[in-house]
Amino acid sequence: MRAGIGSFAFGWAIQQDPAFDEQALVALAVRHGVRVVQLGDNLPAHQMPAARFDALVAACRARRVDLELGARGLTEAHLDTYLSLCRRAGARVLRFVADAPGCEPSSDDLVALLRSAAPEIASAGVVLGLENHDRFPAATLRHIVEEVDHAAVGICLDTANSLGAGEGLLYVTDLLAPFTVNLHVKDVTIRRVPYQMGFVVEGCALGRGQLPIRWTIERVREKGRCGTVILEGWTRPAASPDETVRHERAEVEAGIGVLERLLAGSVDPPGSSGS
Questions:
Q1: Neighbours of 73 (CB within 10 A)
Q2: Which CATH architecture describes the domain 2-264?
């Protein structure tokens, strides 16, 4: 499996730093020897003017970076839009979050849509990863993919998102690893509040939290369907926007090294809690 960087590794920078865009993301990846970049819906490809998108594709090709695309709101029309963009970009992975504002398809709706679209997805040379993202439990996502039953449709497994559905990563990985075609890695800390009645879950640098990242990577690798592992992040906000962006960049740059060591099977870095 190959390491990549996703636009959601820079959730703050993309919001707060006008100079940080898709070209800056590609340049950072190249500086760190990473040859896969995934655009999520915080840098939506379908909203880019054609010239801007074509410039991104040209930059990726010139620098030998593989581009993957991501979107949210899984409808027939939106899927068609992104398959067209994948063809233009030569993107082989398309990650989709089913839900968007005003769009919450049922599991039956998703089965019908994806079953119908699977031949077109395959003909575009794309594999679609349906991401675990809060509303659907892992068992439902597995059911959707099993019902579609096509090699062009699988799971984008995110290591933290299913906490929003009340599910832990060990359980989610057991259910979804056999269908995972794209893996998103981010880490979190989980601590009890001072009054002892509840927990706070916050993002942290990869390898510094409590999620069994290494175990998930190995389980997914064993199943043999996943080609890329994309670094994302949830950086805790600092005292100022500029400080937050600097902290985010430092976490990403450290996380690249951690991810590469995890993929190589090396020992976890000092301070890691079992990732």
A1: 18
A2: Alpha-Beta Barrel (3.20)
Please name the amino acid found at residue 210: Q
For range 257-263, the mean pLDDT: 96
**Strand-pair partners of 189:** 202
Mean pLDDT value of segment 102-126: 97
Q: Which residues of 183-211 are buried (b: 16+ CB within 10 A; e: fewer)?
A: bbbbbbbeeeeeeeeeeeeebbbbbbbbb
pTM: 0.94
H or E segment and range at residue 196: none
Closest CA to 181 of 141, 223, 136: 223
Give which of 160, 146, 71 is closest to 115, Cα–Cα: 146
Alpha-carbon gap, residue 135 to 161, rounded angstroms:
10
What is the C-alpha to C-alpha distance for residues 138 and 176, in angstroms, rounded to an integer? 7
Q: What is the pLDDT of residues 128-159, one digit of tens each?
A: 999 999 899 999 999 999 999 999 999 999 99
Tell me the per-residue pLDDT of 188-213, one tens digit each, with 9 for 90 and over: 999 999 999 999 999 999 999 999 99
End-to-end CA distance of the chain: 17
Query: Helical H runs in the chain?
Result: 11-16, 22-31, 50-62, 76-89, 107-123, 138-148, 169-176, 213-223, 241-264
Q: Who contacts 242 (Cβ-Cβ below 8 Å, separation ≥6)?
A: none
Provide Rg for the chain, Cα atoms: 18
Say how far apart CA 22 and CA 8 lie, in whole Å.
11
